[in-house]
Amino acid sequence: MKMSTHVVRIDTQSHNNSQISPSVPSVIIAEGQRGGFIEVLAIIGSIILMILTFPISVFICFKVVQEYERAVIFRMGRLRSGGARGPGVFFVLPCVDNYCKVDLRTVSFDVPPQEVLTKDSVTVSVDAVVYYRINDPLKAVVQVANYSHSTRLLAATTLRNVLGTRNLSELLIERENISHTMSNILDHSTDPWGVKVERVEIKDVSLPTQLQRAMATEAEAAREARAKVIAAEGEMKASRALKEAADTLSESPAALQLRYLQTLNSISSEKNSTIIFPLPMDLITPFLNMKR
Fold this sequence. Notes:
This protein is α+β, with helices and mostly antiparallel strands and 292 residues long. Helices cover 48% and strands 24% of the residues. The protein has helices spanning 37-52, 54-61, 137-142, 147-163, 168-173, 175-190, 209-250, 253-269, 281-291, and strands spanning 6-10, 27-31, 62-65, 69-75, 78-79, 88-91, 97-103, 107-117, 123-134, 195-206.
């Protein structure tokens, strides 16, 4: 007795011009390739056992997966054809079939803080968060032993590699570009595993205490320098305005006297107890001549 042969082909991504990457070869997964006598005997015995225990075997043979789950079934160690089962009810043979559930919902995890040496030789601690989901349940079960753990390790390694090529200023300013670059790298690397990386976000960048103090001192000195430049520009503009006003007042002595009286009026309106009254030299000059 020979079993029918079913072949399920899982092709990984290839390069342009139909050249397959040597690091990620194509994998062909087959079911029932001329099953041996023991395998056939086990399947027949499983069917007989199911018939003899019919009312009870129904609860064992029929399985249910949720809308967001898929079941990958193996029969005597071989992947069954037809792809992943679900959602809903599917049938398995007792003692012969076993299955793995795969969750298709988006999963997020925190990348542990990584000590990274930037391009300008500054040590920083960076952590991120990654969002991914299973795109192909068959690849997620067959191509990698633990897709979740592998994705976490790859995310941590990619974070260190990407940040090691950036300066500290780029790391602090261009977070969105760095996240987009990491997302593309992770998505391309995890595609053979059936994992789709949807988004990567850098959460926090921790700088050493001494570096924070140095940056704060630098920023404070830059602000003080800008304040001094602004004050000097203001003084220059004020001196130009005063020069123009002095030129205008010098053309008319009466205008100077009016400005003088206006200043006295402003001082007296503030109810000060002491008033400084400058006396013009034009009034004192005749008395000085008489004294001589």
